[in-house]
Amino acid sequence: MAKLEGVNVIDMRDGEITKIVYKGETYKKVDIERSEVEIGDIVRNTITRRDAAKGNYYEVVGDSFFVTTVLDDVNDGHTEIIHHGEIFRKVSAPTITDRVDELDTRVSALEAVESAKEYDKPAQVGDTILITDAYHTLGRYKNGDKLTVKKVDEENDVVATEESGHYYIDNSEFKIIGRKEAEKQPFEVGDKVRLISGGNKYPLRGFNIGGVYEVADLNYNHDDIDGKAVAIKREDGHIGYAHPSQIEKVSEADLVFIENGREPDEYRKGDIVAYDDPEWFENSGIGEVIGFSESDGIPRVKAVDFEGYVVSYYLDDKIKPVAFVESRVDVDA
Prior knowledge:
Elements: E1 8-13, E2 16-22, E3 25-30, E4 42-44, E5 57-59, E6 61-62, E7 68-69, H1 79-84, E8 86-90, H2 96-116, E9 128-131, E10 146-152, E11 158-161, E12 165-169, E13 174-178, E14 192-195, E15 212-221, E16 228-233, E17 239-242, E18 247-249, H3 252-258, E19 272-277, E20 283-292, E21 299-304, E22 310-314, E23 319-323
Antiparallel strand pairs: 1-2, 2-3, 3-8, 4-5, 4-8, 6-7, 9-10, 9-13, 10-11, 11-12, 14-15, 14-18, 15-16, 16-17, 19-20, 19-23, 20-21, 21-22
């Protein structure tokens, strides 16, 4: 077989051809013995011979004696080209196992890079720390242990981990090798929150369940609260400390109800409300709650519609409180 036409080089290392493409198939250079050459391999000629120019590519074939050889440009056999040439073998399509192995290798490499990364102290809740100089451990941890920070104190020292429990670990004993991306706090300083558990118990003495307070600090390290505590403030300035799960944010609209001793969106018969209803009343105005639907408690509002008639309709999210019945002087609340 004459020299191969259409062979393209697709990879070189230090000036050496390492990968080629022929008829859409990829061939990779292999370092093998002459006896290991197979029919179908491609040889790059590195010697000058008549009818076989140096640098040409030839396909390995078998002769009548089952000897591998190449045929030059006039179809004469040249086994010595194989002896002195560069052998390229077709790259087989990767199996599922090959792909899994490759993925495992990549993941291991990424983990190695990640483990090599070190973060600045002080430690934060959720950090992964690597113990490098353990002492006074009482068997709780040892050098090489990877621990997840569960709690830090007011000086940002680690005082508890998920694995070792509550036990002080000095800053000099570890390095930080992983940092959990900070979760967005559901609260902001200045937010109004309602206490839903832990009222009148340390560290929330003087704070009542159901009471509304102001957020004063989001990242307070408290000895008796796992993770970051939220500092909340009474109107008189007294501070208490709550776990985020013990409070819920209160919107301005909800605050109107809570400050009047009601649950959010809790209307009562006799409340005066503002409405904006293009569907039933076909106007906006002021009305009075006169009752509720039996199935889902939607307020029934009496008001003057767009034609001037006094009618009533069930309205849900289209109303806002104007005056609660307890504050009305024209009725007995």
